[in-house]
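hiii so my PI (J.) wants the whole complex modelled not just the main chain, which honestly fair. so below is everything: two entries, each one labled with what it is. i double checked the lines twice but i was tired so who knows lol
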Amino acid sequence: MSEMATTTTHWHETAEAGLPGAPEWLLRVRAEALERFEALGWPARGDTRYAYTDLKPIQAGAPAATPGAATEDDLAPFLSGDESALLVFIDGRLDASLSRTDDLPDGVVVRAASTDLAGLDREHLERLAATDDPLVALDVATFQDGAVVRVPRGTTVAGTLHLMFVTTGPGLRVLHNHIHVGEDAEAMVLESHVHLADNEGLTLSHTTLAAAPAARLRHVKVQKEDRRARHVATQEVVQERDADVHSTLLDVGATQARQAVTATLRGRGASCELGGVFFGQRDQRRDVWTRIDHEVPDCTSTETFKGILDDASRGAFTGLVVVHPGAHGTNSDQQNRNLLLSTKAHADATPQLEIHNDDVKCAHGSTIGQLDEEALFFLRSRGIGAQQARLMLTRAFASDVIQGVPSAPIRTLLDRYLHVWFIKHQEHL
Amino acid sequence: MLEINNLHVEVDGKPILKGLSLSVPAGEVHAIMGPNGSGKSTLANVVAGKDGYEVTEGSITYDGKDLLEMDPEERAREGVFLAFQYPVEIPGVNNTYFLRESLNAIRKHRDEEEVDAIDFLDLVQEKAEAVGLKDKLLERSVNAGFSGGEKKRNEVFQMAVLEPRLAVLDETDSGLDIDALRTVADGVNRLRKPDNAFLVITHYQRLLDHIVPDVVHVLQDGRIVKTGGKELALELEKEGYADLA
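here's the output for the full assembly
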């Protein structure tokens, strides 16, 4: 198979364009990643990882986005308000004038990859270039920029480290983020993908969350791209001994969104909590795919994903938990709940457990249902209008995921997004 | 205040109320007693406007307005309140938050100013104390993890905060121990005013020892078969429903 047969022109051009200022080793890693991608090919029909995402529009790619402009006022609605650092990327490129990263504890790094390409984590990128996920390989081969966050050993960062990816126009944005929280260190990272103008762009994004021994890494991702845009993201979590990771997804925007999360618990006593709420309206497609690997004993993983689907939207949750031989004392709980607000909306739930050992506690459950008519009548019988009552119950459905986020300012922000989604959604009905 | 005339109601095509007529003037407490299956809860739900009840004949007017034409929320804003027999649990909806939304929806309808969070908290604490609802339950989700008695108290608490003009209590006494029953009754008695009315639906006479009704109606097989004073409740307690009709 020729190269061009697999990578369509736009992707090829993106890879060819390279990274201005990249050191020799990085160019080599990117070339390896592209080769890897070519070898893997686009996910085949029947690749269960991609069963619920239409890859055709993604295969087609798009010309690289041209960075637009934004003002501080434009960004205000997306802020949590307690940012200790703000790193802003417009259409995939750093905007230094809107970013502020100078008020951080000693040794804490929050920067764009493009500001020091030679300083990227070579070992990390080499490992990723050998991935078996074609979209991860494609990301390494073609990323234009992204965020690098490093929190040194023993440091607790107060407030939110906010990585904001703003789109203002069409085109392709390829992002690569690497967040590393050191031993016994703690940080909250907010990764926002938001839009300022209508666009039919395509975002390909990869984020690595690496938690060193006893690190506490909190992460929230907001996907609020334009409703005609596409968003395809992979996120990998790697946890060492006693590391605690809490990652929450709010998936609201884009006509098509795929969020894949893998978590590897490779240090004893690690604890991983993944949560998410995805919303669908009109003919939006949501695809959340997760895989958690319990490689060592005494780790805990908890997953709570909730889908709220209206109109003719479709949402899928696929959750695989693998308990490796020897990983005794594993405790794993996976829940997926879906709320269908229309008879044409559709949810697919596929929980999967692979257990290669005896001494484990694994639970999973999934439900698909409608708003509780009794509760709706109760609220209305207390004078609350039908629309308001539906909003209250929909928010309530998502509330345990939102309430689980370990940051009050971010909880408030997420609740605001939820509210705006609902009000806008009601208006279009 | 409430005029029900020749009301016929079907549920899933099955007639439940078969020509019920009832008149409750302002300032009075009327009790509806009757055996299981006589249509008591159907009456309560039809007054509150629940779906699934088809009125095939008859009318309900409230303050001269056609109640059956109104949505449930409109009825509530006009001052109708139903204390549910089986209060629903709503995880994720905070008890105090929802009640403030509710009170403000009603106040807005009356062109009154909305209550701010601080004033509302004072009001809520005062009323919760009056009906013996524990403070910590105010902060929880509506009825989530409440005991049966706590759920019933929560209904009476909501009534105390919303101060309806017409309150329908649907078997609010069932499952309550005597202390809880007294508190609930005190809550109701404190709300009795010349310009509001109560319809107390019960299977047993016990509640009526504490909420003394002006009029007692006996509902049987979808119709009021007997109407009398408070002594009728005692009579029913002694002789049962069987001898009536």
